[in-house]
Hints:
The structure holds two protein chains of two kinds.
Chain A: H1 15-42, H2 48-52, H3 62-72, H4 78-90, H5 104-139, H6 141-157, H7 160-174, H8 186-216, H9 219-226, H10 231-249, H11 251-268, H12 274-283, H13 287-315
Helix pairs in contact in A: 1-13, 5-6, 5-8, 5-11, 5-13, 6-8, 7-8, 7-11, 8-10, 8-11, 9-10, 10-13, 11-12, 11-13, 12-13
Chain B: E1 2-13, E2 16-27, E3 31-35, H1 42-48, E4 56-58, E5 61-64, E6 67-68, H2 74-80, E7 85-88, H3 102-113, H4 118-131, H5 137-141, H6 150-161, E8 168-172, H7 180-195, E9 199-204, H8 207-210, E10 216-221, E11 224-230, H9 231-236, H10 241-249, E12 279-290, E13 293-304, E14 308-312, H11 319-326, E15 334-339, E16 342-343, H12 349-353, E17 359-363, H13 376-384, H14 394-402, H15 419-431, E18 437-441, H16 449-466, E19 469-474, H17 477-483, E20 486-491, E21 494-500, H18 501-506, H19 511-519
Parallel strand pairs in B: 3-9, 3-10, 7-8, 8-9, 14-19, 14-20, 17-18, 18-19
Antiparallel strand pairs in B: 1-2, 1-4, 1-5, 5-6, 10-11, 12-13, 12-15, 15-16, 20-21
Helix pairs in contact in B: 3-4, 3-6, 4-6, 6-7, 10-16, 13-14, 13-15, 15-16
Amino acid sequence: MALxxxxxxxxxxxxxPWLLLRLGGVVFVLWAVATVTFFAIRLIPGDPxxxxxxxxxxxxxxxxxxxxxxxxxLDLPLPLQYLHYLGRLAAGDLGRSYSLREPVxxxxxxxxxxxxxxxxxSLLTAAVIALALAAWSTRGGxxxxxxxxxxxVVSAALPHFWLAISLILLFSTTLGWLPPxxxxxxxxxxxxxxxxAIPLAGFLGQVMRESLLDALGSPFVLAARARxxxxxxxxxxxxxRHAAIPAIGLAGWAFGALISGAVVVETIFARPGIxxxxxxxxxxxxxxxxxxxxxVVALGxxxxxxxxxxxxxxxxxxxxPTTAHRGRS
Amino acid sequence: MTxxxxxxxxxxxxxxxxxxxxxxxxxxxxxxxxxxxxxxxKSVTARALLGLTGGSVNAAELRFHDTDLRSASPSRLRRxxxxxxxxxxxxxxxxxxxxxxxxxxxxxxxxxxTRLGAAQRRARAIELLAEAGVPQAAERAAQRxxxxxxxxxxxxxxxxxxxxxxxxxxxDEPTTALDTTVQAGIxxxxxxxxxxxxxxxxxxxxxxxxxxxxxxxxVMSEGRVVESGPAERVLAEPRHPYTRRLIAAVPTDRPRxxxxxxxxxxxxxxxxxxxxxxxxLSATGLRREFGSRVAVDGVGFAxxxxxxxxxxxxxxxxKxxxxxxxxxxxxxxxxxxxxxxxPWSTLTEPQRRERRPGIGAIYQDxxxxxxxxxxxxQILADALSGGRSRRASPEVVALMESxxxxxxxxxxxxxxxxxxxxQRVAIARAIAPxxxxxxxxxxxxxxxxxVQAQVLDLLDDLQRSLGLSYLFxxxxxxxxxxxxxxxxxxxxxxxxxxxxxxxxxSRPRHDYTRALIDSAPRLG
Lengths: 329, 524
C-alpha cells in the first residue's frame, strides 16, 4: 500500500548543526581555492617581481628587482611565502595589488558592484525569457513547442563572445540604437545583459518547460480545472511553483556561468567589473589581485548555493527522499 | 427532472475514436455507476461532462440540468465545474498539489465561486474537512498531502469537490489503492452524500465496490456501453457476456480453486511433489525494529508444501517487512526463518546465494522490478540461466507459454505491455529458477478486477502444476480468502489471529478481524 512500511523516519537535522556544517564547508572551500590559485599562478612563466615593476617591457634594473623581491617577500622559499600569505588572509588582509598599487580589497570594492548588477539583471532577464518561452511552448500547441525547443537549444549553445559581437553589429553598427561600449546609464547595460541572459535563458527554459509540462499533465492540475480554476489560475497557482523548483536548483550553477561570462562581456564592452579585473590581473601576474577576486567569487558562489537551498526548502517543504527502503505505492 | 442526459456520446483524440454510442441519464439524488476495465473509456466519458477530455466531443445530447454542454462557453463550463459538478479524480494519492497545504485546495473552490473573504474561506474549509470525516480538521488543513494517509487525502479531495454543494459529484475510482476499512469509510461518506440529495456518477473497475451505492449500472467495454440497467437486474441476470465475465471475476466469497475466468484449470503434474504437511518455510518469533519503531514483533508461522499461507493486514501492519525477512532482504533482530527445514536467516549472504533459487518473489509494481532496457525475452533468459545469458532459447518460449504470454511478446519492452501482462512476466521470471516457494506481495492490488482474476487463476494453475507454496500478502480480504489455505491477520506488527482460512472467516475471534471482514465489499 501507499505508506512506506519499512522506511526509517526521515532524518531532519536541526538548523544549528546544519549552519555550522555549512560554515565549516565555506572555510574549507575558501582555503582550498586560495591554495590552488596561489600555486597555479606560479606556473605561468615569468617573474612576479617584473610584474610589480610594470611587466617584462619595463626593463627594470637588477637592483630594483631585488628590492621588490625583498619588499614583497618574493625572495623567501615558496612554502614560506604561502604560509605568510595564508596568515595575512586569515587576518582578512588580501594584500596589495602589484599592478595597481592599491589594496586588493579596495580594488574589488570598486568593481564588485558593477558586476553584481550585471549578473543580477542578467539572471532576472534570463528567468523572464525562459518562463515566457516555457509558458508559450506549453500553451501554443505543437508549432510553438517546436519553435521554442529550437530557440532554447540554439541560445544555450551560443558562445558569449560571438553573441556580444553579433549584438554590437546589429544594434550599434547597423541600427545605431544602442552604444557599442558600456556607457553609464541604462542604455549601456542593455547589450551586456542580453549577452549574458540569452544563453542562460536557453538552459533555464529547457528545464522549466519539462517540469511545467509535467505539472500541467498531473492529476492535481486536472483536479484544479475540475474545480473551475481558470487557465491563468492553473498556471500561477499550481504549475509555476513546480516549474521553479529545478530552475532554482540551477541558480548556483547559473551564478558561476554568469561570472565567467562577465569576464568576456566586461572585456568586450569595456565595462569596469571584477571579470575584467580578473583577466588583466592574470595577464599581469598580479597574484594578490587574482586570489582576491577568485576568493570573492567563491564566497559569492557559496552564498548563492546556500540561498538556493533555503529557497528550495521554502518552495518545496516536503522532506527530502531518504535512501532507506521505500514502501510500494 | 433528469439532471444529466447523455445520448450517443462520442469522444475522439486526433482522429481515433475512444468512446462512441454512450447513453445514460442521471436523476437528481441518484447514483449511477460506469463500470469497465482500464481503457474502456469510462473516465473519458465522465470528463466529457466537465468539458475536460482534451479531445473532440460529439453527442446527440449532452445536457446537465438546463445547460447544453455541447455549446456551453468556456466561462460557462468553468462556472459549472466545482459549483454544480464536483469531481473527485482518479489517483487519490496524487490529485492534491504536493506543494500546498490541503486546506488551500478546498479554499480554492470557495475563492473561485464565492465572494467569501480569506478568513471565512479558511473557516469553511475546516468545516468541510470535518464534514468529510477528517479528524482534527484544523491541523490537517495546514498539512501537505505527503503528511496525510491515503484515506485522509481522499477525504480532503472529496471535501474540495463538495465545497459548493454541487448537484452532481463525479467520483473516478475513489477507493482504488485504499485499504479495505478505509475504502468502506469512503463509500459510507459517498452514501451519506447521496442520501442528502447529491447525484453521484461513480466510476470503477470493481463491481463489488459500486454495487453498494449505485442504483443503475452502465457497463462499458472498449469505448462502448455493452449493458445498462438497474443494478439488481444487471447483477442478478447479466445479459452481455462481458458483464458475466466481470461478475465472475470478483473473488469475494468464491471457494478456493474455483475459476474466476473461463480458462480451464491446468492439470496437476504427476512428477511434481503434491500438497503435503511437509513444512517448506517456517518462521519463529520474528522481530524487526526500525529506529524506535517495531515493525514486526513475535511473528511465527509454518507454510506447507503446495499450500498457500495468506497474510492480511492494512498499511503499516508489517506484512511487507515479514516478506522481506522471509526473502532475507532484512535481518531479523530476533527469531529465525528456516527454508526447507534448514537454516536460512542465520546464514551469511554468500552461503545463502546458492539456495536463493529455492524462493522467489512477485510484487505489486511489476514494471519497476524490471530493468527498463531489457526486453521480455532477455529478462526471462536472464532468470532461466541464473544471470549467465540473455540469449533467446526454446525454454524462454515454453516459460512464456506456461504463464499465458504469447511468444511474440518476447521482443517487447515491459513498459509497452498491459498491467496484467507485466505481472505475468514477473511471475514467469519468478518461477524460472524452479523455486519451491513464491512470496507474493500484493501481486494483484493495482490490477483491474478482470485482470486480477486472470492472474489469480494463473497462480492457482502454477501451484497445481508445479507444486508451489505461496506466501500470499494482501490487504484484500476477498482475494486472500479465495487464495489461501491458512491465514494470518496482522496489525501493528503483531499476529492478531491465525488458523485455517475458513475458520478465521466463519468464526473470527478478534473484533478487528470481524471489522475487516464486514468492510470488504461484496456483490449485490
